[in-house]
Amino acid sequence: MSAAAWRVTRWILLIAFATYFLIPLAALLNFSTKDPLTRERSLAAWRALAQDPTMTEAITTSLLLAVLTVVGMVVLLVPTMIWVKLRVPRATRLVEFLCLLPLTIPALVILVGMKNVYAWVNYLVGDSPLTLAFVYVVLVLPYSYRAIDASLGSLDATTLAEAARSLGASWFTVITRVILPNIWPGVLGGAFIAVALVLGEFTIASLSHYNTLPVVIVFINKADAPESMAAALASLLFAALLLVLLSFLDRRRHHSGGK
Amino acid sequence: MSDTAPLAGPTAGPAAEPRTGRSFRIGPSVGLLPFLVYVFVFLVIPTITVAVGAFRDDDGGYSLTKIRLLGDDTALTALKNSLVLSFSSAALGAVLGALLAYLVVTAPPTNIIRRVVTAVCGVLAQFGGVTLAFAWMATLGFNGLLTQVLADTLGTEESGVPWLYGMRGLVLVYTYFQIPLMVIVFLPALEGLQPQWREAAVNLGATTRQYWTQVAFPLLRPAFLGSALLLFANAFAAYATAAALISQGSFITPLLIRNSLTSEVLLGQRNFGFALALEMVVVVALVMSLYAWLLKRTSRWL
């Protein structure tokens, strides 16, 4: 194939892919801005996102869940990973295995088996949709692990820790004030992916009968289809925004690494 | 690492013991306890519950009743459908995703098209399936965008295509997130294909065709198959898309699990859910171990 023919083929194929990916998104926009009966343009569905109490409550729940999950993930995973790197390197494979395990155990399976655990959780901290954050921390482990591991791997943490320790820093200081600031982009990246995953998580929330955003999107579809389409598109765009921010973060890291 | 080795002694070796005080005597491994306990409670216990529950009968004793139920027509058909769905969406996703990755990788990393493609792929592959199911309902369902266009031009039904809510619809919607996932996992392997290898092949007199069939394809095959397996596991474990698209019916395994959970009042349905979930873990675990094995082979070259 000549170079010119290849260039044309490449463009045709790229346009075909773009069409395939954009049509459903355009359809969401079209559907959410159209009155189902009169078929006239209307922004009622988008306004309802901020006014419908079921919807606003679900959005609040999902955002709170995202925050709690990120906090839980950071508190649980970051010190553990730093500690493994500095003091218990022989546990590296074990921690990696456990962090990647949720890729092998589907969320649906965790849900089927978590009734006993959640009976205790609900007994100890009460019955609230926010308790889902406990299991969400497990679901986001593989993605957060990879993001943080990439940051931690490119850092000479041992030398930094030795320097700090020899100047009299406690281990707590070493982790929070020496290592953490250096792996911040990785932690932030892991947090962004965690937020996107939590905002889209449907399996566990719906089968536990908690009204998070995706659950409500499905639920109100029967009563008000345009509103649920608007919510679906809005959450998709929000996730897109987060991940685009993440890619900029990634680029900055490459830049500073190159200098 | 080697340049820090002389300094590593004081912190990593037993020589540091007197200096670091009490916490050291218990051993630094204690620092891992919170993490291990957490993962045990919220991941391992649920999995064990499923594995044990699958071998229990309704009276609490151990038996193979529920496992035998997996051989029933309903469960077998659901499993077969799930495997067919995972296989076809993985195959379509792998081939088309690899093609898209190749179209993108030939451009430099700073290229705007490449940026947009990787960003969009990241969102579609990682964000939940509910929104994607709805996007397709807005496209081909009742009052959907394409439905309208088709009705206006070809005079087809305005109620939308009926097959969207069946197997064909599931394959279509699953492929919509499988292609982006393929792009994400296959791009690094394509990037690892060194231009020097092509130059070497060309210098030895290879044609473009020979380079692809005898150098590039054999090198990429493990990565391609590995990515395809990951896609398969991803489709097999997926629940949200199918559940959002199909509110009634249980013709694939995840939906059958939903059915057994929501109709718990029926005697024995709860434990049947355990057996189905165990079946799911076994399939995904098998596929993922194959994936890990292939990944090890890939890392030799790419």
Describe this structure in words.
The complex is a heterodimer of chains A (259) and B (302). Chain A has 259 residues and is mainly alpha-helical. Chain A has one domain: Orthogonal Bundle (MetI-like fold). Chain A is 80% helix and 0% strand. The longest helix of chain A is centred in the first third of the chain and has 34 residues, at 53-86. Chain B has 302 residues and is mostly helical. Chain B has two domains: 23-53, no CATH class; 66-298, MetI-like (MetI-like fold), CATH 1.10.3720. Chain B is built from 15 helices and no strands. Chain B has helices at residues 5-12, 17-20, 22-26, 33-53, 65-69, 73-105, 112-126, 129-140, 145-154, 167-191, 195-203, 208-237, 240-245, 253-262, 269-298. The chains are: A mainly alpha (259), B mainly alpha (302). Chains A and B meet through helix 1, helix 3, helix 5, helix 6 and helix 7 of A and helix 1, helix 4, helix 6, helix 7 and helix 8 of B.
Question: What is the compact description of this entry?
Answer:
Chain A is mostly helical and 259 residues long. Chain A is built from 13 helices and no strands.
